[in-house]
Amino acid sequence: MIQAARAAGVTQIVCTPHLFHPGFAGIRTDDARSRLAELQPETEIRLILGGEHYLSSDFVQALAEQGRARLHTVCDLFILVEFGPFSQPITTGNILRRLRELGLFPLIAHPERYESGKRLLQWMSALKEQGCLFVVNSRSLMGADGRKCERAARELISHGLIHGVASDAHAPEDLASHYPDCLAWIEREYGSRVAKLLFVVNPWLIAQGRLPVDFADSDQLDRILSQGGCNA
Ligand SMILES: [Fe+2]
Q1: What is the CATH number of the domain that holds 201?
Q2: Fewer CB within 10 Å of terminal CB in the chain, N or C?
Q3: 187-214 pLDDT tens trace
Q4: CA 82 / ligand 1 centre spacing (Å)
Q5: Domain count, the chain
Q6: pLDDT tens digits, one per residue of 91-117
Q7: Model confidence over 154-180: pLDDT tens digits?
Q8: Could you tell me the distance, in angstroms and rounded to a whole number, from the CA of residue 114 to the centre of ligand 1?
Q9: Is residue 208 within 8 Å of residue 75, measured between CB atoms?
Q10: What is the pTM (predicted TM-score) of this model?
């Protein structure tokens, strides 16, 4: 996976094991941390521990009883979350509001999977108002998860709702094909500034514990680019 990431030009990876997911065995935070510590000396790619939190009843219970204690946040500021297939806007909105009250910014993983058309745009726009951020999958944009997902992912980008593109890599092939193909496609479709925003600047800001730049905030993107840190 690391070799494929290096070949794709990746310089930092936020590792996001499934957490609170009914379909995946949980991983202990200590184990994940020690595994990354073992791997880190073998690569120049910076490895960061995060987690993909499934908004299950277990998650809600852990949040109510233990607050942030069992969450894998990035820089103590961002939390990657995913919804179940039958999630409703009101229920998810309430859980995400609780995360905001705890001072966290929810990063919604693959929003393109949850709805389509106008309903998806309205739902995600409402979550954006709540302070949520959005990451689409390169697989979705490249059509690897079906036409519906592809259309939804492209619509979300066109409406300026997306802050970053993630590989969601479960295997090296995801990094070797969909991710670089998607970068090339975004450059062609939206230009190199948007590609830089979604693939370089915002992921870099998030990994630094800084808020990503909004799609429409061209001035802020210029400021970040002129500081040059994200190219390092
Ligand atoms: Fe996911």
Answers
A1: 3.20.20.140
A2: C
A3: 999 999 999 999 999 999 999 999 999 9
A4: 6
A5: 1
A6: 999 999 999 999 999 999 999 999 999
A7: 999 999 999 999 999 999 988 888 999
A8: 11
A9: yes
A10: 0.95
Alpha-carbon gap, residue 73 to 80, rounded angstroms: 8
Distance 26 CA to ligand 1 centre (A): 14
Coil/strand/helix, residue 80: strand
Residue-number span of the structural domain to which 82 is assigned? 2-231
Ion ligand 1: residues, Cβ under 5 Å: 82, 109
Classify burial at 188, counting beta carbons within 10 Å of its beta carbon; exposed 0-12, middle 13-18, buried 19 or more.
Answer: exposed
- Give CA–CA dist 15/225, Å, rounded: 26
Centre of ligand 1 from the C-alpha of residue 31, in Å: 21
CA torsion, points 198, 128, 211, 20, in degrees to nearest 10?
Answer: -90
CA of 104 to the centre of ligand 1 (A): 19
Tell me how far apart the alpha carbons of residues 107 and 4 are, in angstroms, rounded to a whole number.
Answer: 25
